[in-house]
DNA sequence: GATATACTTGCATCCACATGCAAATAAATA
DNA sequence: TATTTATTTGCATGTGGATGCAAGTATATC
């Protein structure tokens, strides 16, 4: 079996690793999108209550959204006394998205070549 | 009002434009993820029936998934006689993802600076 | 220790969506 | 035109997820 024949499979597995469903699930809700955009515009981390002010839903729901985003490695959290500070890991998310873009184009080239 | 003060708003709007909910909604389903990965591994477009063979669900459901992905500009479709050929617009999707990554890092820099 | 503040979690409800089956549409062929 | 093939769409069902309220947990202050 030549390396050439293995390329398609290597491609799909690379894409399969890159296309993590949890990431897209985390980003497919409009409230979570607005949370990400809001945190991206801040220089510092924000508390749950601060973030909830911009969402229009109960803060308990915001807390759940923040957990989903944190579990998907989109946000970082850190307890500070009574409050919990959430911040956007912009660099990590950007790198993940670029990794998907790279995998897509790698597949395209391998499939065509 | 200085340009410096407008930066945060410009940032959020740039991100708001980049973070299209429809794109993430389209990619948050595991069947649609597998469709994208499958099409990425092919050199040519595929019919609905061909794609359905890899999904494990009824072809009518696959047809709906393909429509969702096409509406989100992830796939291109073209009728060829009785069949409809779907193909992945890998370059476009990669560019969109890189655009989000760029907007994220631009926001981060503006918020910090 | 008691109280207040900040957040998380349990519970019930509601809505969006994925799915399968069947019918409808589009297009080629007999 | 009738029939077959390929895809789409209508309909009903089931499931997952978002939401609000209330209760529970964690931390600080009195």
Uncertain ranges of chain A: 1-6
Biggest interface between protein chains, with counts per chain? A-B, 39 and 39 residues
Number of domains of chain A: 1
- Helix/strand-derived category of chain A reads alpha+beta
Amount of beta strand of chain A? 5-15%
Tally of strands of chain A: 3
The gyration radius over C-alpha positions of chain A equals: 18 Å
Distance between the termini of chain A: 18 Å
The CATH homologous superfamily name of chain A equals Winged helix-like DNA-binding domain superfamily/Winged helix DNA-binding domain
Order of helices and strands of chain A: HHHEHHEEH
Architecture overview:
Two copies of one chain form a homodimer. The first copy, chain A, is an alpha+beta fold. The first copy, chain A, has a single domain (21-105), classed as Winged helix-like DNA-binding domain superfamily/Winged helix DNA-binding domain (Arc Repressor Mutant, subunit A, Orthogonal Bundle). Helix content of chain A is 66%, strand content 12%. Chain A has helices at 3-18, 21-27, 30-40, 48-52, 59-71, 90-112, and strands at residues 46-47, 75-80, 83-88. Mean pLDDT of chain A is 90; it is low at 1-6. The interface between A and B is large, with 39 and 39 residues. Chain A binds a DNA duplex (30 and 30 nucleotides) through residues 29, 31, 47-49, 57-61, 63-65, 67, 79, 81-84.
């Amino acid at each position: 079996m030549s390396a050439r024949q293995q390329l398609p499979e290597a491609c799909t597995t690379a894409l399969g690793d890159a296309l993590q469903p949890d990431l897209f699930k985390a980003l497919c809700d409009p409230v979570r999108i607005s949370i990400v955009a809001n945190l991206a515009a801040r220089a510092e981390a924000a508390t749950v209550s601060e973030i909830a002010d911009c969402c229009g839903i109960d803060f308990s729901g915001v807390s759940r959204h923040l957990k989903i985003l944190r579990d998907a490695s989109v946000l970082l959290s850190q307890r500070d006394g009574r409050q919990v500070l959430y911040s956007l890991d912009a660099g990590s998310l950007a790198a993940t998205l670029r990794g998907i873009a790279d995998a897509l184009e790698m597949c395209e080239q391998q499939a065509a070549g």
